[in-house]
Amino acid sequence: MQYSIRLLCILTLASIILMSAFVGMRHYVTSANMDAALNSKAALIAQRVAYAVQPTIWNIYQKSAERVYSEQVTSAILDSELADPNVIGVSVYGNFGHVFMARYKDAEGNITEHSPARHKSALTQADHRSLISVRQGAMTIGNVLVLISDAPNAAQLRRILIIDAAQILIVSICFILFLFYAIQKALIRPAAQLKEANAELEEFSYRITHDLRSPIVSSLALIKMSKTSLERGNTDQAILEIEHIIKSLEYLDQLNHDVFEVLTIARKDERIEPVNIENMIQDITALLSHLSGGVQIDLRYDYNAPPFIHTKPERLRMIIENLVSNAMKYKDMEEAAPFIKFTTNQESGVFMLEIEDNGIGIPEDMHQHVFKMFKRFHPKVSFGSGLGLYLAQKSAHIIGAEIKFIPTEKGTKFKLSIPLQE
Asked: What is the pTM of this model?
């Protein structure tokens, strides 16, 4: 009996120490993740506001007097961003400090207008900030500053710590040894996969929520501005604003399509069939030829393998369509002889397709993010959801293939390797 009690005490102490370490580690990781999420949130909000004001800020910038946005436009663009409990200030200002629009949040959560004192107070309270430039061509004509406070997260962290402490007490008292081993089996083995899946799901949910709202907020502001322009008889300005509205809604439509593909890509049931890849490439280039914008692109073919392979045709088509559409949309307008080259080879039971172009390419510092969700490398050149290459990689995995980005001196090059099947 004495040894049983002693063993129970040892197991209880060991369980408390282990669970306390687990809680401490979880608290640290949660805190670090929250900080990273807030930094990402600040950057995303700054990008959205910059995108919303970019079509009109040049007109404000050129004015000799009253170089500020109206209260209506300011509220339409900034108030929805300040609804986020972490956001305490958003301002758009010129190169020399002139404020085009600004909103701040006081201690009671009320949205207030700009003043030097409020701006200074928000800067003092901010734990995270993001500053990006608004450009007109190569010239910087404005800046967007987003201020974030992590105060709302402090209470959440305290609640997490209290809940975890209570769990320690309960787990330590109730069936310590058996419950301890059960927790090990339940949590440790799938921990890496679960963490990766949760991280991807959180990023996907957050980005979808905000990327869907961004073009809507921008379109609403532009609709109000175009209405004002029409009332004043300024039809040229109204047409320009309507064109920006159309671009925002086209982006929203593309995003909805790509999101649907992300949500259904793993559930689509497709049979393996013989596919003539040369004919498929011919069909895709003809279908997407309008993306060249009237520029003559030289399509080059270097086929060194039999054209037929056995695979899931729609998955393969999605991969090739994404790569070809990117090559056409992101061509180099200064290139005298733009081209897209298709090369096939077969080696050791693997069919290989390379698609290469001499377009504007992908910035070197973004090579590691090529296949990640919502990565847009040239948003000023062409609108897109940033999901195309992510979907291409997912489709490649589904058909048992591998897709790689190969850095080149000029343009982009992708290699798709498909194991041959009978």
From this structure: 0.43
Give the number of other Cβ atoms within 10 Å of residue 31's Cβ: 15
Q: What is the dihedral angle through the alpha carbons of 41, 42, 44, 46, rounded to the nearest 10 degrees?
A: 160
254 closest CA partner among 82, 66, 387, 391:
387
As given in the structure block, the two tokens for residue 381 are: 């050149």
- Say if residues 341 and 311 touch (Cβ distance below 8 Å): no
- 196 pLDDT exceeds 80? no
Residues 44 and 24: their CA atoms lie apart, in Å, by: 30
Residue 369 CA to residue 299 CA, distance in Å, equals 27
For residues 242-254, one letter each, b for 16 or more C-beta atoms within 10 angstroms of the residue's C-beta and e for the rest, the string is bebbebbeebbee
CA distance 48 to 216: 11
pLDDT of residue 254: 61
Residue type, 413: K
Amino acid at 18: L
pLDDT tens, 224-238? 787 887 888 888 887
DSSP H stretches of helix in 102-173:
116-125, 151-173
Is residue 75 classed as helix, strand or coil in its secondary structure?
Answer: helix
Rounded-to-integer distance, Cα 170 and Cα 176, Å: 9
Task: Round the average pLDDT of the chain to a whole number and report it.
Answer: 78
Sole residue written with tokens 């007097």: 65
**CA distances in angstroms from 242 to 57, 104, 131, 236, 239, listed in the order given:** 16, 30, 28, 10, 5
Q: Which residue has the higher pLDDT, 18 or 79?
A: 79
CA distance 130 to 86: 13
Which two structure tokens, joined as six digits, stand for 108? 């009671």
Contact 127, 42 (CB under 8 A): no
Pair of tokens at residue 138: 């190569």
Residue with tokens 């300024």: 234
Q: Which residues are paired to 102 by β-bridges?
A: 91
Closest alpha carbon to 396 in 323, 335, 307, 293? 323
Lowest mean pLDDT among 151-160, 376-385, 410-419: 376-385
Q: Is the distance from CB of 386 to CB of 334 less than 8 angstroms?
A: no
Neighbours of 310 (CB within 10 A): 16
Q: Cα–Cα distance between 97 and 94 in angstroms, integer?
A: 5
pLDDT tens column, 260-276: 565 555 556 678 889 99
What's the CA gap between 24 and 37, in Å, rounded? 20
- Using alpha carbons, select from 332, 304, 321 the residue that is nearest to residue 408: 332
For 189, the 3-state DSSP assignment is: coil
